[in-house]
Backbone:
């Protein structure tokens, strides 16, 4: 009896959600008739939902707002029904962390086995005719999301943060005066005219979990909390340490993907040394040596770091149709002489051949000493 009531309640909720979802699709078709691609896409989505009318319950609990325009109502229906979350929200970050933990912490056979167990549990709870609904919903969601992305490639690229064209990463000067430009429309740039005018320190630091349980191994939560605290402190005091930016990477040379690394850029070695001897970094090191190794006798975590210093003119960077990556994600604190304030300036500069001849080739992006070494090696 209880099971019968549960199924009846599920049907009611599904029908109600399907009606809400259908209203959004109708508004979408009415207000986007000029776009034939959208019309075809939304028609197919509507037909798919009619084929599986109970699918929409797994989607949503928002009511259509009559104050919204048709286009807004369309996007609300599509975004909510597909659970397309903004990547800048806290919920999205948590979701990405969970996805990374599942994807990187388990092998493909393990994930398939877990999926089979989950489907078996659903089959035991729901009647046979509804047991495949969750799987059908996930498949339909993937198809619709892919169709939406194919219908608007520029929107998809902008969501990824792709910068169109060719660009480079260069360190800005320590200070600049925007009032000394060529004219009012072209203020002075914080960047010099020569590529790689300043030296830079690149620091690799990471850890590897050598345990069958991976991130679920003993003391891993405490280790993760300590390293997260170091990252937050470094970002909060970036100006003090001369930190320009950092990005996280994971090695792909093992099935378990259990080696993680951070690539961090500093202006000079003095800033790196200040960070290395700071209290928050020493706390992690002392915990690893005195608690993790000596007290508990653990040895299933390996740690490493590498530091490189590139003198001015001895490095070069180029990117094309890429989101800001590695050094191009960095930012430097620059003093604005006109206002007397410190500003954070990104490292991305235009490197197109027409506007920046100095970035035309790798040879032109390096200094004379490096060029002579390259010529001698030929």
Residues:
């Amino acid at each position: 009896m209880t099971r019968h009531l549960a199924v009846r309640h599920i049907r009611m909720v599904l029908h109600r959600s399907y009606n809400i979802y259908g209203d959004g699709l109708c508004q979408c078709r009415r207000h986007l008739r000029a776009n034939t691609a959208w019309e075809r896409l939304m028609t197919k989505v509507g037909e798919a939902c009619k084929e599986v009318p109970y699918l929409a319950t797994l989607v949503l609990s928002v009511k259509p707002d009559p104050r919204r325009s048709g286009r807004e109502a369309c996007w609300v229906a599509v975004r909510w029904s597909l659970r397309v979350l903004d990547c800048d929200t806290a919920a999205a970050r948590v979701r990405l962390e969970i996805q990374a933990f599942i994807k990187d912490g388990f092998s493909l056979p393990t994930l398939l086995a877990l999926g089979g167990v989950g489907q078996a549990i659903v089959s035991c709870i729901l009647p046979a005719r509804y047991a495949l609904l969750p799987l059908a919903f996930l498949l339909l969601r993937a198809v619709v999301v892919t169709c939406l992305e194919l219908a608007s490639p520029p929107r998809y690229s902008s969501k990824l943060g792709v910068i169109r064209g060719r660009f480079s990463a260069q360190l800005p000067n320590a200070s600049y005066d925007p009032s000394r430009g060529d004219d009012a429309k072209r203020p002075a740039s914080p960047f010099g005219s020569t590529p790689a005018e300043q030296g830079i320190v690149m620091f690799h630091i990471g850890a590897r979990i050598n345990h069958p349980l991976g991130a679920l191994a003993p003391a891993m939560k405490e280790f993760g909390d300590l390293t997260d605290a170091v990252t937050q402190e470094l970002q909060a005091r970036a100006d003090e340490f001369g930190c320009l930016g950092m990005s996280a990477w994971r090695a792909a040379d093992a099935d378990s993907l259990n080696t993680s690394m951070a690539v961090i850029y500093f202006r000079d070695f003095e800033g790196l040394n200040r960070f290395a001897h700071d209290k928050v970094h020493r706390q992690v090191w002392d915990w690893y040596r005195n608690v993790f190794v000596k007290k508990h006798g653990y040895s299933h975590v390996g740690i490493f770091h590498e530091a490189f210093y590139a003198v001015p003119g001895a490095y070069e960077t180029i990117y094309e149709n890429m989101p800001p990556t590695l050094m191009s994600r960095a930012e430097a604190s620059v003093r604005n002489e006109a206002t007397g304030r410190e500003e954070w300036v990104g490292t991305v500069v235009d490197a197109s051949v027409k506007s920046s001849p100095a970035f035309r080739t790798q040879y032109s992006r390096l200094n004379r000493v490096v060029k002579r070494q390259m010529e001698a090696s030929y």
